[in-house]
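[#protein-structures] MJ: dropping 39S ribosomal protein L39, mitochondrial-like here for a structure pass
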Amino acid sequence: MSDSLSMLREGQISSNIVQKQNDIFNKEFKRQQNAVGRIEKINVTYKGLPEDAELIMNKNLSTPYNCAQHMSEMLCDRSVLALIDGVKLWDMHRPLESDCELQLLHFYDSDPYHSNRTFWRSCSIMLGSVLSNAFKDNVEVQLHSFPSPNVKSGSFVYDVQLSGVDNWKPTSAELRVLSAEMVKLAYEAVPFERLSISQDLAEALFEHNKYKLEQIPSIVQQSIGEWRWSRSSQCSFNERSNILPISLEEAVRF
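AK: finished. structure tokens for 39S ribosomal protein L39, mitochondrial-like:
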């Protein structure tokens, strides 16, 4: 690696902190799955192309994506998020909790505002993942909350604090490296995963990030969630009006 790229490492390398976060997540995810108990059925009324359908799904297990799998590969490929009972946005991989009417939103809708917002926010999360893994071990990366995306212009950003480096100004070569890592992550097509967790568990997950810890008390009165992007990236956390962030303005687990 040339001197101009001395701040960046080659490829994304999982840290001990990320591994610990993933271990905590996996343990809690498995615990919640085992606690489901007797499986109840729910009626899901799908409205949309290729045709309306009535589906019998599993309560607290089946997701909008699972519904799409029963109907069309096209729906699986193009759907960005779901709309429940015509009023509530719902992540594609979030289990359904009761009988409902289901619509699947995508970029070719007459008004793709929510799909666009989901896309740009998801890109912000991916950028946070790339930045958290891009620097060498002597540089500490602290992720902040990312600003809300400007959907009209199409943009995504993520604020970070770098410790161990003074007034770093990325060179053109370094920016190309970061862009390449972003493209690589996109092609991996790693799914966002959702998990509702307690305040104590959220604090354990983000004990090494003072910015994330500061956010938790301000939203604990509403609800707490966490998402993981992949086993090799770092958790991110961002507040919203009544949940935590990402793909549909929920929380983010990497």
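MJ: nice. The beta strands are 41-46, 53-58, 81-84, 88-90, 100-105, 140-143, 160-163, 193-196, 225-228.
AK: one more thing. The chain has seven helices and nine strands.
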